[in-house]
Write the structure tokens for this entry.
Amino acid sequence: MIRRLAALLVALAATVTATAAAAGPAGHSILWSVRGEHNTVYLFGSIHVLRSGDVGLPPAAAKAYGDAERIVMEIDMDDPFVSDPAAITSMMQQSALLPPEQSLRTVLGSDYPAIAERSRAAGLDLEAMDRFAPWFVALLLLQIEITERGFDAQHGIEQQVTELAVADRKPITGLETPAEQFAVLGGLSMADQKRFLLMTLEESEQDDAQLDLMLDAWRRGDTAALARTLSEEFEDFPQLYRPLTEDRNRAWVGDLEALLDQRDDYLVVVGALHLVGRNSVVELLRQRGHSVTQH
């Protein structure tokens, strides 16, 4: 279902309209705050790519940005390396290279002809991808798909916040590096990478209805709907969604907790699915005894 494409858009840091964003049933948005002894840490659930013209933060997030002296994101978007598309592409390609004794054709086996035909129809020639792992091909297809649906990372929440922070001279730091993000997908077994690729092709054949439903849930601050989406994805493909969400949440939570010992206020911007559902950043902080308030 197209729901899965939407979940990937959020989880992969690589997902929505903020203008005219209506409040949820309880007047909430995808924003939480945690009080330290001397400061406040805000947690804002992002959508990494947006449609053209969808600019401006939701009011609660804009207020949190105004309060914060420092910004934290999944990766440091202000880093010159991160902001260089050629450098990032080169790193991703190096991360995705198969061992010399393997090829994409051999890894995909008897499914290669069918996958090659469907990939060609989607706009990608597998002959040129033979040295790369299936996860890399899946990401390229996902990029083609989101572009065709009118989404662009240049309109995403992270890019919007980065532009504001650069203009306002607010420091940005990252919770992980691009290499660590690529390693998450590279750590999947070849069988799971192949399944990820097939799943991406299947998603490209669906319409936008369920994607729009998920984006609307984000706008309304409907954390229950977003959590249901993540739960369904876990049930369908835990080998993919556990390392993309839960494992990264656990890796981040100690660093986020340490921010509560500082004096500056922080705005933390991570994919929305990291803040909802089981073992979310919000839940893990509560398990550590912190009071986390949704706005």
In short: The longest strand covers residues 40-46. Residues 6 and 212 are 9 Å apart (CA to CA).
